[in-house]
């Protein structure tokens, strides 16, 4: 019974992580669409009077997008960490390599 509860807790945690990631992607898309509409001038008629509309004012939007994409990539890598089997295989190969090296070193001095 405890094993079933443990599996349920893991599955529940995984679903929550997926839901949080999808929410992150949705917010990313919504915010960046809004910012690019502001930058392109489509929404400038809705801005208050006296709002700075110089072209260079919205240059930060591009950097913002790059930084947020990097953060989203890290979030995705964390979420799908068990799907990246090539990384686990690499770790196992490195561990084996160091174990063999250590074994060879000990045999050398016997």
By helix and strand content, what is the structural category? mainly alpha
Shape: elongated
Q: What percentage of amino acids are in beta strands?
A: under 5%
H and E string: HHH
Tell me the major beta sheet: none
Q: How many domains in all?
A: 2
Provide the fold topology.
Elements: H1 2-40, H2 60-79, H3 85-108
Helix pairs in contact: 1-2
Overall description:
This protein is mainly α and 110 residues long. Helices cover 75% and strands 0% of the residues. It has 3 helices and no strands. Helix 1 (2-40) packs antiparallel against helix 2. The longest helix is centred in the first third of the chain and has 39 residues, at 2-40. The model has no long low-confidence stretch (mean pLDDT 84).
